[in-house]
């Protein structure tokens, strides 16, 4: 039996009669980088919003480590170790890179006040923040004002602030969106690196990224699960190819 960290059972979301997510049964295996892909309007973001509790399902269940979290609040699942990046972990532009990671660490600890009382604890916090920056290759930018960071580096900082919250499952919503070639490469490598000892579920449009780092791929179409498997499997799937036909430049072909 596979070790499943996240599971949906018959997950469904309707908006005024329109079913955006339709009876989806997902299983994310622990330790995997799992991608959710599909043509525009397939229901990827809606699915993500259900998993992160931004939306309440119309029907179905969500299980995390075997516990039913269908009715849990966003803050509760964050405490359980499900952390979404790139949307809630917005960084503060007027703080330095190091200060931003420290804020993330304090948020995780929930003890901001007494932390500032002790010089020793402050040093400990700095050490942890610097270690996280080193993990995402930002050690050289510690004192840089966040607003002055290049775009791809900001995303790396967002990953560091997410890591500060010690996620067991990281949810990444189009992590390479809007990036140039070099940043895409850097962030892809970074995701691969921080996936060690964690599980990652990501929505991703860039098939090169999906092909490069994802262990398993679920394809959504019109709200329903169309196919599942490795990149090699789903990219050969006739229904998947048809689903992608006529969409923004036949994305699946663009991966080679
Ligand atoms: N709040 C809402 N009210 C009504 N319809 C919605 C709502 N949110 C999403 N939808 C519809 O649900 C469908 C799925 O949308 P969703 O944003 O989940 O797709 P997606 O796969 O993320 O697409 P994209 O690749 O374009 O980001 C779309 O037809 C969308 O118009
Ligand atoms: Mg979307």
Task: Describe the secondary structure blueprint for this structure.
Blueprint: E1 4-15, E2 18-24, E3 27-29, E4 33-37, H1 44-51, E5 59-64, E6 67-68, H2 74-80, E7 82-85, H3 97-109, H4 112-117, H5 119-135, H6 151-163, E8 169-173, H7 181-194, E9 199-203, H8 207-213, E10 216-221, E11 224-229, H9 231-236, H10 238-244
The structure holds adenosine-5'-triphosphate and magnesium ion (MG).
Largest sheet: 6 strands, mixed
CATH class designation of the largest domain: Alpha Beta
At the fold tier of CATH, the topology name of the largest domain is Rossmann fold
* Neighbour order of strands in the largest sheet: 7-8-9-4-10-11
What is the CATH architecture assignment of the largest domain? 3-Layer(aba) Sandwich
What spatial form do the alpha-carbon principal axes imply? Answer: globular
**How many extended strands?**
11
Helix- and strand-based class? alpha/beta
Bound molecules: adenosine-5'-triphosphate, magnesium ion
Structural account:
- This protein has 256 residues and is of the alpha/beta class.
- The protein folds into 2 domains: 1-89 and 168-256, P-loop containing nucleotide triphosphate hydrolases (Rossmann fold); 90-164, no CATH class.
- Helices cover 38% and strands 24% of the residues.
- The strands form 2 sheets. Strands 7-8-9-4-10-11 form a 6-stranded mixed β-sheet, with helices on both faces. Strands 1, 2, 3, 5 and 6 form a 5-stranded antiparallel β-sheet that branches.
- Strand 10 and strand 11 (224-229) form a beta hairpin.
- The radius of gyration is 19 Å and the shape is globular.
- It starts with a strand and ends in a 12-residue tail after the last helix.
- The model has no long low-confidence stretch (mean pLDDT 88).
- Adenosine-5'-triphosphate is lined by residues 15, 18, 20, 38, 40-46.
- Keywords: ATP-binding, Cell membrane, Membrane, Nucleotide-binding, Transport.
- It holds the Pfam family BCA_ABC_TP_C.
